[in-house]
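Quick board copy: two proteins, each given as sequence then tokens.
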Amino acid sequence: MPPLPPIPRLGRRTLLLYGLGIAIILFSLGNIIWSTIHLNRIGSNSWSAANSKAQFISEGSFSNSLRHSAIEAVNIVKFVAYGGMFPENHDNENANAIIDDRIDSNSNSKDARQEESVNHTDESGSIIPFELSVNHLKLITHAPGKPPTPPLPPHASSSVPNEDFLPVVRPNEVTFRWRHRPRVGSPAADAARVKAYRIIARRFVGCDNCGSKGDGDGVLWDSDKVVLIDNEHDNDLPTSIRWPAETALDIGHMIEWRVTLWDMADQTSTSSWTKFAVGPEKEDDWKGEWIVHAIDMATFHFDRKGDACEKWYMRHPLPLFRGLLPYQSLQSFLHDDDPLVSALLVVSGLGSFRATFDGVPLSPSGPVDPPFTDYSQRVSYRGFDVTNFLVGDDNVGSHVVGITVGSGWWDHRPVTGMAKPELLANGPLTVIAQLYLTTASGKVHITMPTKGSTATWQVSRGHIKESDLFTGEMIDLSTLTEMEGWDTSSKWSIAETKLSPSQNHWSLPVSYITNITQRERREKLSVMANALDKSEMTTRTTRKGYLASPIGQLFPSEIPPILPMERIAPDEIHDLGSGRWLLDFGRAFSGMLHFDKGLPQPIIPHNNTYPRAHGFRKEFDNDSFITIVYGESLELTTGDINRVLVAGLGLHDGGPRHKSKPEGFTDYKPCFPDDHDKILTQKDIYVVPKNAEVTELYSKARQSHFTTHAFRFAEICCTSEPPTNVHALMYRTAMQEW
């Protein structure tokens, strides 16, 4: 028998790689075993999707998680059964048929939506235009994940806005684009190319009894038929069409436009009308100015005592702004022979804002509106069509514009860590707005400009006690109920002359002031980035006056807004005990919870001991509150939501055990929340102060607005039962997914 060959000796690096591979395998197996055991354990107390999911899903939910998971399971089983390859036989086709049915159903619904956007009266062209846009912006009539409208105040308007996003352009920058597709069943030769096109743009008329809407009425530009292909031409359709320079556009006008396409058989198809607005371009176009709560502005004065955190809390609760359009003022612009045909409200707010008109929300826009820019250089504004609120017999009287603001990227919590928020432009929460009224003659009137120390606009502390873009919001439900209808004319009152930090105390705002110049700010940032030596600075550091950042030039929003793009029901709801409920949505996304019917009444856990992460500040021990904690994963040891590295600020303790940071490590950090267990937590808090009547107040809770959470899991504490009809709103930029 020949001797066996010698066993080769393995090098140290090879052994290390083998060991690492074995460790990964063991960790994966342990994770699977733990997940199975743990989820089965809490599943015994689970409000399972199979038994009670219907009570948490209202009509119109966009969640198809279970069906999607089933489809994935079919494919995974087949993939494994055939050794990692799909078989090329009819069994595979049957499996794919499930997917094809789902795709077909989605495609059919999409085609139906597109067909609805096309006017096919007396037309049978083979090429259908759709998705019309101006400057790459499309009119969005309804956000896909828009939640139900909450109960409105008793005296709120019965009118509603026509759209959730209205494109706004500057008068000298207007470019038209659209997409087109072949009509189903049309001859391929006819639909091969666009033979000609025609664009018609006309002045928008927003009421039925104030002017004709015939095709030839109020036309501002008609391109006529532009032939691309004939005996003398063979041109492709341009990627965009610019508004002719010789045709001037007036600021404040809203424009309707549509396009007609000719196919190769010389048959036409015409899109439906869509619209956009023309907004202010230069600084001189703005009659309004940035306004702010006087107490907030004072916290940025050089002589004001206190550190950054103390001043930040002085600016809380967050302010509410409102402006009045008196009936007499409105009538002074309008006449029987020159009625109102459109009304455009332009608004911006720093950090983030939401606008209402006569108590009705104008858009479900997300936590960052305006979009994030260097606010010391550029700030975008939004436009809203409010014509519906000003025309008709039901809308006679005075009107009120309301603006709610959040901290956003502008007045962020002064916490430092991995992120460097102190490098961003910073100032008190501030807004700017004005209203354009266009009459049938085409004349434009500007009214309601924001001005400091004028009776038209007022400011008060509101119901948002704290707001942070990442760590969450604290909402005072007692104040929310007490101030209900603050943005309607029925609750308008004369402004108080005495300043007060109290809620529901309306006073006159002041103008935004800063002694910091644009050049000084740029040079300071350059020095901090080592791009400029301090000795090369041409400006001196300001040591007097107001030290808020300068605000940049206003321009219309150039990207689609952040909107609720999907409304997702939880896949599972687990009872964790002590009044704590875990919601699992099956996938991670960015957004927050929305409670269609409010929150149930809170309970106090046994021995007044709240579960980890759900405690509250000691000074509010007698307050009633409910907390919602968000996270993307669960901890292996406890099953609690993993809060490590929440908000990306790098301040955490590494989990419930094996603290990587010593006790008190974050104590010196300015403005670290003292109720976050030394971990920055994604947490929304709904609170009712002591001595307030709790009954039915929690039914007013709907959602946080000026914060965003990355999560798959959410914990609600502490209630005897989970809220009914709870959904997650997935917020993202309103762009079509590929």
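And the next:
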Amino acid sequence: QAVNGSDYTIDGPGFAELNEEALRKALADFEEDVQLGLVPAAALPGAGFNESGVQIYQPPLQALLYDENGQINDPSTQVILLIYDILNNHALYSVADLVEEFAYIAGLPFGGSFVLELVKTGLPPLPDTVVRAWQTDFVVDMVEDVKDHLAEGGDLDVFKQLFETMGGDGVSQDEKENAVIRLVALLTMREMGDPEAILWQDLSAILGQPLGPALIPALKSSLVTEALSDSQGIVNRALERKDALISALQVLAAKVILFSPYFPAACIRGTDACPDTEVDEGSQAMRDLYVQATTTDDLSTLEFGETLREEFLTIFLDELGLKDIIDLLNDALNSPSTATILNILSVPGPVSNGEVDYLQNLSLGNLTVDLDPAVAAASLSPEVLVCLANVSSLMYEGQRTKEAWVDGLGIKSVGRFRHNFLSTFIEAFVVEEDNAVILAFEGTPYIQQNFFRGLFGWLQDALSSVSEPFAYPCREREGDPAEALCEDLAGKFPGAEVYRGFIPTQNATAIDGTLVKLVDEALAALESARATMAPAAGATKREEEEEKPKLYVTGHSLGAALAKNALTQLLLRDAGDKFASVNAYTFAPPVTGNPEYVGMQNELLERAGKGRTYMILNEYDEVPYLPPFVNFSHGNDTLHFDHGLLSFKRIDTMDTPFATHPLNVMMPPLGYHSIKGQYLPLARAVAGGEGGGCELLCDTGQCGLFKCPDLCKGKL
């Protein structure tokens, strides 16, 4: 249903307007403006390259379109659509109240309504806005600008002072709010005081005629510079209007969540991207308000109570248990590794036409990656690699897409669970013909598809900066064969610590009642299914019944770390004895624990003698280097896709530091981390696949022949 509000509907104009024809016309218009010199040269990718003949990679135009499920897969485009919607429908979202507060705080002689009407009048059509933001790399430049400011040290010091203040003993809520207001005011003034920053150059190009050319001169005008010169006055007025400012922000956020078609609130709207779930009182209140909005023409009658306005901020924090979120951020900001990470990420990459060629060939399915002999000797199967990359990919999908994908691979889902209604899923699959069980872990949900589950996942990832002692489950294993092994490892690696974000619970009873139970249920389902199958050629029914099944554990990103830790828990409980072999294929895993913990995992696998754990890393992917980023190891079987050599080889991250992607590749954040756009097609390239029967699919800044008729059945 549509919600009426002026000439606006909740269904929104985006789906109809963002078609390929409209985007190509907008691109032609933009290129004409470039030729006429109407676009700031600094806003164009490649503006800083001195040498000639440099190729530029940008996400293809198809990446900006809605997919077959009606979703935008490019996070940058999702951000632009949301901003555009808010500005174009500012009355619906009560933006004027917020802008009025900002105008007063800045000491400007005109009100917010004037500014909003000016912006709305000069706002380009939606296709032009999306294309211009894409061509200028606006969202990526925003991220880079913040990162560079932090790396320079000044802003990082401001953040440190803020969280030291907020984390102190006896600090009141009022004092914490004042600290946040002061920080936001200072950072905003710093950004506005640099009119030559790439952010403003990009924005000028996006706005186009008539507002674009006037933007930077306006920032340099005496009106703005004089206002910014009174920094203490701005801070004082911001503190004076704190309550009204916070209230206006809460109303804006609540209305955006409820009404914007571009805000990914899947569970509020009950779309396919939301897993079936029980909802608590607060989230049900948001759902009820959304339903109320769909049945009224007068949005002014909707009530935004105090509880509801705060609910969207507290729901996932309460579930995650981050009562110490301030302490967590304070520790992270004051950690020596934070400055190290920012410095490494701020080093610009080289210029590489070879990387542009690599990305083009990957998208066309023309890439062949050599399997290093050392990797082949480690018993890695390219066919299993492709199968499990598919399974790790489908764990991110909505239910309809997931079911079709599972069916196409020839596998069967037999159960799943999660620790709470926002956390990631663990799902068990069986492959009857191969006598195999697959245990798959969902990674951090895509925030552009489901904001709350995605944000919950990123908060869980943030906990990776906090380690805790690993709880060996030896006492709970008294009398079973695993006890001696567990006690021996506990004595040998007493200082093992695991990163908290990658191990939802260390409670032995909870693990036995969830993870171990799911494995046992999968085994029972597999045994039942195979009981009705005819024996394979040359085998008797008794021989097949006595043959133990194989276990494969897999996941991507957060799911990869969870998978690796789950396998550790299973082996310490002697669950591996139920299987003929146990192998884990983990894609882009963050580091799971300290060196003693990783050493314990290595020895546990070796002594169990059931199989191996492969940690699969992609070049230019920063996630596998987190949280320590330097001086760490993933373990013995760390494998790496080398783009320059087109090889899949074993590495040790101790002597293979992270490398920033080439400067001429305009890849969005986490583009090289993409499972569907990088790891899955690279797995096929290792297996010798050439894109036969594949279809176009887009994911995180890249499109290609990534949707292929792969199989698990018969490959395990």
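Board note added afterward: The first helix runs from residue 14 to 17.
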